[in-house]
Prior knowledge:
Elements: E1 5-6, E2 9-18, E3 21-28, E4 34-40, H1 42-45, H2 48-62, E5 72-78, E6 81-87, E7 92-93, H3 94-97, H4 105-124, E8 127-128, E9 137-139, E10 145-147, E11 160-162, H5 185-201, H6 211-220, H7 231-240, H8 252-262, E12 330-331, E13 345-346, H9 357-384, E14 389-392, E15 404-407, E16 416-419, E17 429-432
Helix pairs in contact: 4-5, 4-8, 7-8
Amino acid sequence: MAGQQFGAYRLDRLIGRGSAGEVWLAHDDGTGRAVALKILSPSAAEDPDYRRRFEREANIGARLDNPHVVPIHAFGAHQGRLYLDMAHIPGVDVAHKLRLGPMRAPEAVDLIAQVAQALDAAHAARLVHRDVKPANIIVHPSGFAYLIDFGIARSSNQTTITATGFTIGTLAYMAPERFAGNAEPRSDIYSLTCVLYECLTARRPFGDTDPVQQLHAHLHDDPPHVESAPDALNQVIARGMAKKPQDRYRTAGELATAALAAIGMAQPIPRTPPELEPPGRTRALPPLEGPVPHTRVMPETGSPANRPPHPTRVAPENLAPVAAGPRPTRVLSKPNPDDAEPDVIRAPATHHPVFTPRLLRVIIGLIILAVVVFAVIVGCTPLMSGGGQHVVNPGTTTGHSPTLTSEAPAPTSEPAPTTAPQIPGFTFTFQFPTPTFTFAPPPTFTIPTWQWPPAGQ
């Protein structure tokens, strides 16, 4: 696609590619600037709910006012693919830097302190990044660090590790509560502490083992001790990676302050943000109604002479600043074009009417009960309709009670079949003999006559 036109952008050079999309160094024809253009896979635009979340979170991310957050210029859709226009940051991500070996403690802690500022700004805006990792931190040649990719979440057809649930992130850096589908600001603090550990060791906290072992380690194991770090810094890592969110630092800034104090630094190294492209303008997606498979939001462009005017853009400086309030927490993540490690995703649950074993047992029990009641009623009908004879002996005998007999028809040799209602795939047949009731006379007792004194005495 190099040299091709993508809406208002000319694609110059592929920067990265991953399972969720591509990142291009592109030229924005409308502003004349070089940008980093993230183009998501076509499947991302086919889900209306996903698109709405993308629009909402990218719009909020574009208004985050922090020098360590990469500015978002614009976002939208073109030819059935969502895209995000961000400032191009010359530099290298931390994942590539760590391939050369671990960092010294002051450098690692200073990096974490810079990223902590970006996270605190996002958390104040009710945003949880959910995918903090070395590949998402870019370091400018001046040493200024940026946290990238606010406003992007992976589509639901990515690699899954659970059959239910909806977890987005990279397994090696995920907090324990994330595996239960929960995400909160302290989940990002756990991930940032994992990054600190990796910066000091050039290794992930729980290695590169298979997913099941990593998941178990996040849930149950303490982080390994960093031999090259002082004990105070190891204690900071232990608290930042505590299994329970309430046992961690309350903010990313608290984590950074504790890490700086552990190595004897009062504050991070003062840094001036490098000069980037002029501030961008944000254009939003149009309202989405219903499924939009491969919807072209921006018109396809041809030669410059045939291109329609650019859509109206609203400058971020004219937008109200994002402020913390009682709004619900908004959660986002990103597609990772540079890191091929699959994310943990929870696919949407599908519901199909099925007969569960428990439901079948209940149905069968009700059928059996109905059949038994029916058989008893049928068997008692002759008795209740006067089919039997009741005869009282006319004679009386001293010391004898009246005799009661009941004559019933002789039982038939063939039982009366009764068939229960049928369930598709199951057949139940029950046979009950016709009941016969016989009332026998009570026993007769003779009471002897006694005299006292005996006769003849």
